[in-house]
Amino acid sequence: MLSAAKRCFSTSRVSPYKVTVLGAGGGIGQPLSLLLKLNHKVTDLRLYDLKGAPGVAADLSHIPTNSLVKGFTPDNSGLKEALTNTDVVLIPAGVPRKPGMTRDDLFAINASIVRDLATACAENAPNAAILVISNPVNSTVPIVAQVLKNKGVYNPKKLFGVTTLDVIRASRFISEVAHTNPTQERVTVVGGHSGITIIPLLSQTKHSTMDEASKEALIHRIQFGGDEVVKAKNGAGSATLSMAQAGAKFANSVLQGLDGEADVIEPSFVDSPLYKSEGIEFFASPVKLGPHGVEKIYSIGQISSEEEELLAKCKETLKTNIQKGEKFVTEA
């Protein structure tokens, strides 16, 4: 008799998807690739990096799931081959944070990496959904958008900044304070993906009456949770395993949307109308995912006076971050 897991796998009907990871040999890329190999929606997994991707692909290819894995390097048009006709591209490429660094400190290095990969996506995978993980997301997503615009292939419904790590951290951290099951906690996180631009809407949870001191400490921890990992790794990197899980979770939601599954809603940093009148082109809020990518962008809903103050600070910083990314491309 088949086990429950095998029965589920053998009877499920999903469309086959081609998924490409750019930066697959890195600290995020390797565990992310593993999780994607285990996703039954992914039947063609392409892994690209400057080096190491063929080895990662060979390793993963021994796992008995219904997907083919191939690794690519810059040799012999590897990037083009990794991207051609792919459905979803994840970009974790770049350098990790080190102690004392902020996400913005990464900009000078990661901006050029993301720009070049975005150019390759525009030329070889213009219809793919692009999921940007490389930090600082508040600036790298606008970089990708500007590159795609310059190439005449920009589709705002297919570009996502992955902010899911903030969401899963919020669920975990709030459960530690409230002594609850983290898998049952749902916290909407809006704004951006760096420091004070991260706004967990605690007023919309069942813990809205939490005392002010606990609430302030919790918000700060969610906003700067990445610093805990950078400090604990003592110069050896930043959040890689939790980020890989977050990236794989969001990628699965995108694939569910492309597959036509109902009510797939995740917060994401996207080209948004919510605050465009204030000059803020991108904003993270709950997004409904569908066959064409973004189907609907939801407002942040009713928030507390304290969260209004956080939002005001977020907007100021976010606007600067977005403009920094756009200028990097337009003034190059």
UniProtKB/TrEMBL annotation:
GO terms for biological process: malate metabolic process; tricarboxylic acid cycle. One of its GO terms (cellular component) is mitochondrion. Residues 18-161 form the Lactate/malate dehydrogenase N-terminal domain. Its EC number is 1.1.1.37. Keywords: NAD, Oxidoreductase, Tricarboxylic acid cycle. The active site is at H193 (proton acceptor). Substrate binds at R97, R103, N135, R169. Belongs to the LDH/MDH superfamily. MDH type 1 family. Homodimer. This is Malate dehydrogenase.
